[in-house]
Amino acid sequence: MPNFATLHHSVLCCFRKCGTVDHLNQTTAILITSGLSHHAFFLADLLRSPTKDLGYPLLLFDRLATPYIFLWNAIIRGFSGSPQPQMALVAYSRLRNHNVVPDRHTFPVLLRSFSKLRNENPFQFYAHIMKFGMDFDAFVQNSLVSAFANCGYVECSRRLFTENAKKDAISWTALINGCLRNGRAAEALECFLGMRSSGVEVDEVTIVSVLCAAAMLRDVWFGKWVHGFYVLSGRVIWDVYVGSALVDMYSKCGYCVDAVKVFNEMPTRNLVSWGALIAGFVQCNRCNKALEAFHEMIIQGFEPNQSLVTSALTACAQLGALDQGRWLHRYIDRNKLELNLKLGTALIDMYSKCGCVDEALFVFEKLPAKDVYSWTAMINGLAMHGDALSSLNLFSQMVRSGVQPNGVTFLGVLSACAHGGLVDEGLELFRLMRCDYHLEPKVDHYGCMVDLQGRAGRLEEAIKFIESMPMEPTPGVWGALFNGCMIHKACELGEQIGNHLIKLQPHHSGRYILLANLYSRCRNWEAAANVRRLMKGKGVDKSPGCSWIEVNGVIHEFIAFDESHTESIHVYVMLESVTAQLKLATYDLDSNILTFGIDGE
Prior knowledge:
- Helix 16 (about 255-265) runs antiparallel to helix 17.
- Helices cover about 65% and strands about 0% of the residues.
- The protein has helices spanning about 5-15, 20-35, 40-45, 55-60, 70-80, 85-95, 105-110, 125-130, 140-150, 155-165, 170-180, 185-195, 205-215, 220-230, 240-250, 255-265, 270-285, 285-300, 305-320, 320-335, 340-355, 355-365, 370-385, 390-400, 405-420, 425-435, 445-455, 460-465, 475-485, 490-505, 510-520, 525-535, 570-585; strands at about 545-550, 555-560.
- The longest helix has 17 residues, at about 570-585.
- The N and C termini lie far apart (about 85 Å).
- The protein has a two-stranded antiparallel sheet.
- A hairpin with a 2-residue loop joins strand 1 and strand 2 (about 555-560).
- It is globular, with a radius of gyration of 30 Å.
- By secondary structure, the chain is mainly alpha-helical.
- It is built from 33 helices and two strands.
């Protein structure tokens, strides 16, 4: 008969090897049938099992004659870090129903669940903390600061922090993170400066938060100062998290070369650092590099998670890299990655932008649940392909399903109306946006409405719409009106707007070229030549055109008049052949008809 220590060791080994729920079921059955399920030590082992199936402990707790507080703390901790953090609150309620008194370890693990429960109210637990005399415990105080900030009560969080007698690095970092979670990056940096002036030692966790704030503010100089003063000097350890935060900061500030340099110098890398690099390449519009980094990561033995695959799919969408996008879809299926909302939305966006709207619809229909982002991606996909009616029908389905549209959703349907010539429907949607959904239109929404009316030939109404805007019209809005003038050959109005755009953006080559094209379209050759001379006299150079194509999963980029590509000779030979055949067919190429988008490019 094995003694207790041997038996406990054997059961502990069994729980540690539980990789699936089935294994956990078998081990738990042994506990129950052997009469050991009432013993606290075995329940503690069950809580530490890798499967994290916390339903069993709750059921078995009723078998305990004395439900020890350390067991309740363990189950609350488990739920706080699980996909069901609200169950931590339920577990605490049951703890009190059993008349168990919480200790100083209970509330920190309970309050940790509020990092995922932004709509919950932490005040009720603050009352319990005071009731049990733990409001002066430093560990509990720091957890309270974090919990109040996570739920949006930043001012309460600040007040608690101020009342904290011992302000250490943990409490300062909790306040900084609270500001960040509520979009108050400038306040987060102010807190950091206050932390420095108070003489509290800064650690790696604080530096990661500060770099995040610098990234949100696009303040690369502050980020560089932190990099030099704390990281390069050795004042903090350059671990994988600090390195990843630096890569993220430089990328979001547009300093992609610095981000790559930091990544290459990192002593160790993990999925977080690879994710920061890949997302950074996408952020800096270097999508080819993002896909190269993704494949290099796999070669080095890292298995990408949903977040990394989402970034790679975004790169494919920007490039129109359909073959690579389909390979990623197969990777998801082959490796049984859960198709969560972000991943599903990225697939929908990729297929839509690569011209495969039917495949996008197939993914959309397969999603078990849909949020506003997945609905919006599909609505925009249909709008992008000129299927205005299907886009509007899907918008109606979304509203009927109870999902509230956001500003990006309305951009999609308004764009669909503009390209489908549905003026009245667009005007009604714009009214609904303001009156029914209480969304204040941004400048892009006004640009869509101007584009809608301009395309339909309602140029006077479009001008009145611009005059009624509560903000200053951007060049994109004026460009949308100019596009209407181009379509309907409104030369006089177009001339006024074109000259106004040149005044707004005197170094933008596209403004000169479009005005010259309008003059050419109106047969005013002398005015067109004058615009081109003006452009040359001001030293404004036309940016060379750029295009790319995917062949057998490889992206080939071509720049106008550039011969650096290995196949350039063959490309130009083929172009000359096509040109010769067009001339033989007496094909009249009208180079003056241009498609002009909302951004006016």
